[in-house]
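Tutorial sheet, problem 5. The two components below are modelled jointly, 220 residues in total.
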Amino acid sequence: KNEVEQSPQNLTAQEGEFITINCSYSVGISALHWLQQHPGGGIVSLFMLSSGKKKHGRLIATINIQEKHSSLHITASHPRDSAVYICAVRSSGNMLTFGGGTRLMVKP
Amino acid sequence: ETGVTQSPTHLIKTRGQQVTLRCSSQSGHNTVSWYQQALGQGPQFIFQYYREEENGRGNFPPRFSGLQFPNYSSELNVNALELDDSALYLCATQTLTNTEAFFGQGTRLTVV
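Model answer (structure tokens):
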């Protein structure tokens, strides 16, 4: 079993839909990152969380430390949101352990 | 723009050859980590350098080695390339006081 599990692996939505991507982890962490990866490979950091909730524009990230679970929400989704969304946890030694990613496609 | 630059962006090598990938970052980002991302998978931790010393290593053989320089740039060296080494190689840098990670665009290595 991987230390970081994401669901779903693939997600197709219509423009305007509310989207939720889930991340569960099994290790103790100091922080959790939500990352966005576009075709071509570059990774952009969306959020870094250690507790509670953060919001940036149409993106909202929440984390429940007791349940070892985090969610990334996208409101009013748009085709430009199409990308791979990756959850990564920071544990001992400051290294990141990544989930397998969720491939999101938003259709117009 | 993350301030982290990787070179080259694409590279094709022959099995058995050696390759050096480079990463440069902003001043003060004294921790650099390298990751391997196979197609369709999440990145896997290779190793981390802090103040020019290896500070952690993932499950990769010794033919994967690295260097970090005083100007915060870093290299990933892979010897005796194998076909399975074909992947996207990412570096991520961070400061000591801020665990936010800044990623480069990656180097896509193809071994034929």
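Marking note: Chain B has a mean pLDDT of 91. Full credit if you identified this.
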